[in-house]
Amino acid sequence: MFKNYLKTAIRHLRKDRIFTAINIFGFAFSISVCLAIVSYLLHEYSYDRYHENGARIYRLIDSQENSSAIDYRVKQQIVDNFPEVENVCLYQLVPLSIQINRGERGYYIENILSTDNAFFEMFSVPFIHGNPEKPFDNLHSVVITESAARELFGDEDPMGKEIVYRKRFPLTVTGVIENFPNNSSMAANVLVNDENDAFKFSFSCADYRDVSSHRYPFRIYMQLNDQVDGQAFTAKLQKYGEVMFPYVNKADLLPLKDIYLHDPTRGSNTLRGNPGLLALLMGIAMIILTLAVINYINLSASQQGKRGKEIGVKKTIGASRSNLIIQFLAESVLISFMSFVIALIIFRLGMPFYNVLFGKAINYNILFQVFSISLIVLSVVLLGTISGIGTALVFSSIQPVSALKGDILKQGSRSIVKNGLSVFQFTISIVLIFCTIIIQKQIGFVKHNHPGFHEDHLLRIDLPGITDDDRNNALLMLDRFRQYPGITGVSLTNGIPGYINTRMGANMEGKQNSLSIIYADTAFMKTFGIELTQGRDLLPGEYGTVCMINEAAYRYFEWDDLDNKRYNNGRQGGFGVIGVVKDFHYQSLYSAIEPMAILFYSGSPTHITVRMSPQHVSDTMNYIQRVWQTILPAYPLKYQFYDEWFDQMYRNEEQFAGAISVFAILAIVISCIGILGLAITNAERRTKEIGIRKVLGASVSGILYLLSKDFAKWIIVANIFALPIGYFAVNHWLQDFAYHTGISWWTFLLAGLLALVIALLTVSWQVVRAATANPVKSLRYE
Q: Do residues 539 and 668 both lie within one domain?
């Protein structure tokens, strides 16, 4: 029996090849897009799931301060007081390029991690060379990844060889590990032993020699025993932690598996995903599949006239409704499987494009695991069944007499169903168009929003090392730069807008907070073009004793003036507050501007910032390179213009906008296929009417209006549903930004007009064809 149904299905599909081709490739296109989205979702949800002990690993956070930075001394308190904890490790990652020397040659290596031996016990880190049980066998041990080993040592065996960290700390290579996989949130290239106090201080403080006022914040990971419940342990931790952890306001645990996508803290020093993007992509995948199903139903419905007599004959000779339903289901499932095979080919060919679109090297073999294959096959069968069931129910309900007389196209209830499905398609299209417009508008807003300082022709130069010689070299370079006429400003700092790695506690008149800190010289304000809104400039002899705060800090401390105000950070005497600077963005626009302080104090310099004359940028760059080669010939010059750097901050958002726009366009294209099916159905249903109107003198333009007005009417109806949905969706997304664009009235109008234009262009071919057809042939239709 099944063989019979299959043969009949194949015969019909071969008979109407245009209908079959449109359905198969429409389905294949939809499925291939969904496969790309699903592979990306599987990749994102796989982060940190490969660790053998991952289900028992948590990160300690301060949920009240919304911070993951914890004093390193808390580790020992956990070990001493909580037997439920099997292992604890410290973790502090510096995501910037850090100078590493090998002999006389200098290198810049990104992502330096300070940790301890417990890290290798807790996490699955495969070793190529070295002792995995205790790779840090002394305070000066260092473990490097295979990529760092190739960069530093080439083909030489790195084991036992020496490198120098930041020109001050000699280290011996005691281990080489495999590179962290691309689904790890904690990638690093060089791992140093945090038991060496110099690393605690240099990682956590701007000046490692002035540590009396700092708490040396690290990230703390703990691995619980097998039988310990995470929630119960969290409750115990909160009950006793207030006494044991004097620097933690409210202890909480964040599971390792949630860190990438659901980390609520700021400055976590690990990679972060975008759960909002994943939810949106998942929604788009569902929309695309829904559109594919609607397309199949609409295109199948357009075949009513061609298949009516076939159905009538089958019913007349005794075919039951269930027989017809099974027949149509067999056709739809067969089309679904054929589409899936073609979709795999399209997906495989499109992999390079998808990688560029998502900005990640995704291993697409993740789709071909046993679970994934089973899920995909089940989805294909389900997709075919859902697509076919609607068509099967409609066709099987046709009366034999009506079918044989050719009257089925006159049955209005089915037209209402088809039109309703098309309104749904228009609604989806308008929502996608509206969301795409707002997303692109927001990306433009954040990229062109003024950061609060003049970033044009402003160059950031990264400095190596933290020794006294480095300070002298930086000062010498500063002096050379000031002498060049193409340079209008130059400043030496630790921390800059866009990257501030230092936070300090502040106790001002009994009100406490943690402030972001920039250590700056006296030229900082002029070089960056930052406006002083209250107070005064530095006076001679005040350097090292005074600071300025931003407007956000001034508002937080609720001051009325600056008389006798001091920034008490625990350093002896603190800093006198002499001015308030206008708020400027030192983070992305995701975050509101937070309290910060500019300390005019000689910390360890990390950057030189140069303001260039716009007329001499090329000559100035050549001069900077010559000066660098003269003073620091062993190190490559690392620099970047601030406007380019701030653009990079929103690269993820641009990729997000690009991905959403591409998939929105693809969804609209798929929707257009269904709209075309409706146009074909309408033209067939009204063929005789069109012929009569033309015989009676109707013009082509009049026929075009007759066949197009319904689509305009349905788009107006779709707008009523679409725009509130679109407004709710984009308004929810915009809440992720502390600063965002407005939703203007013209975006609603533009979305509706674009939907109308797209719909009319889609149906224009079929409408023009019907309007210009010979009326004699039209009257022969029935």
A: no
- For residue 638, the Cα-to-chain-centroid distance in whole angstroms is 27
Cβ-in-10-Å burial (0-12, 13-18, 19+) of 776 comes to: exposed
Report yes or no: 654 and 384 within 8 Å, Cβ to Cβ.
no
Yes or no: say if 553 and 515 are a contact pair by the CB < 8 Å rule.
yes
What is the number of domains present in the chain?
A: 4
Of the candidates 511, 69, 83, the one whose C-alpha atom is nearest the C-alpha of residue 247 is 69
- For residue 18, which amino acid is it? I
Residues 6+ apart with CB under 8 A from 427: 718, 721, 722, 725
28, 16, 31, 710: which is closest to 300 by C-alpha? 16
Helix (H) or strand (E) holding 45: helix 17-45
CA within 13 Å, CB half, 153: 18
Question: Which of 262, 294, 317 is a domain's end point?
Answer: 262
| Orientation of helix 651-685 relative to helix 642-649, angle to 10° | 50
Has residue 142 been placed in a domain?
yes
Record the pTM: 0.77
Q: Where are the alpha helices (DSSP H) in 55-196?
A: 74-81, 117-122, 146-153
Other C-beta atoms closer than 10 Å to the C-beta of 643 total 13
- The alpha helices in 483-616, defined as continuous H runs, are 524-528, 551-557
**Residue with tokens 């015989």, as numbered in its chain:** 695
Residue 615: how many CA atoms within 13 Å on its side-chain side? 3
Same domain, 287 and 240: no
Which of 36, 29, 20, 17 has the alpha carbon at shortest distance from 670? 29
Are 380 and 492 in a shared domain?
no
Q: Which amino acid, one-letter code, is at 138?
A: N
Q: Say yes or no: 222 and 97 in one domain.
A: yes
Single residue among 603, 634, 665 that ends a domain in this structure? 634
- Domain of 30 in residue numbering reads as 1-47+273-410
Residue 21 is predicted with a pLDDT of: 76
Asked if residues 335 and 24 have their Cβ atoms less than 8 Å apart, the reply is yes
Same domain for 444 and 529? no
Extract the residue ranges of the chain whose pLDDT is less than 50: 204-214, 409, 412, 781-782
- Per-residue model confidence (pLDDT) at position 173: 93
CA 566: distance to chain centroid? 41
Query: Which residues are 328's β-sheet partners?
Result: none
Rounded to whole angstroms, the Cα distance separating 85 from 233 reads 9
512 bridge partner residues? 507
pLDDT at 125: 92
In angstroms, the CA 282 to CA 41 distance is 8
Examine residue 750 and state whether it is found in any structural domain, yes or no.
yes
Instruction: Provide the Cα torsion 382, 386, 388, 394; round to 10°.
Output: 160
> Both 366 and 469 in a single domain?
no
Contacts of residue 483, Cβ cutoff 8 Å, sequence gap at least 6:
none
Residue with tokens 């009676």: 696
> Could you report the per-residue pLDDT of 205-257, keeping only the tens digit for each?
433 333 334 455 688 999 999 888 888 888 888 877 666 666 677 788 899 99
- What letter does residue 594 receive in the DSSP assignment? P
623 inside domain: yes
Q: What DSSP element (H or E) covers 6? A: helix 2-15
Identify which of 431, 289, 288 has the alpha carbon closest to the alpha carbon of residue 718: 431
Q: Indicate whether 375 belongs to any domain.
A: yes
* Contact of 635 with 589, CB cutoff 8 Å: no
Q: Which residues contact 780 (CB under 8 A, 6 or more apart)?
A: none
Q: Is the dihedral of CA 330, 336, 339, 340 positive or negative?
A: negative
